Amino acid sequence: MSLNILDLIRGQLGPALVTQAATQLGESESGISKAISGLLPAVVGGFANHSNNPTVLDSITGSANSGLLGNLLGGSANNTYISNVLSSIFGDKVSGIISAVSSYAGIGTGSTSTLLNMVTGATLGSVGKYAADNNLDRSAVSGLLSDQKGIISTLLPAGLSMASLGIGDWFGNSTSERVSTTAPADPKVEVTRAGATHVNVDRDEVKTEGSSIWKWLLPLLLLLLVGWFLMKQCNDKETVTTTENDSTVIVEDSANVIADTSMTTDNRGEMTAIDLNGTPLQGYANGMESRMIEFLRSGGYTNAANDEALKNTWYDFDNVNFQMASATALEPGSEGQIQNLAEILKAYPDAKIKIGGYTDKTGDAATNKKLSQDRADFIKSELTRMGVGAQVTDAEGYGSEQAKVDASASDAERATDRKMSVRFTK
Question: What is the pTM of this model?
Answer without folding.
Answer: 0.42
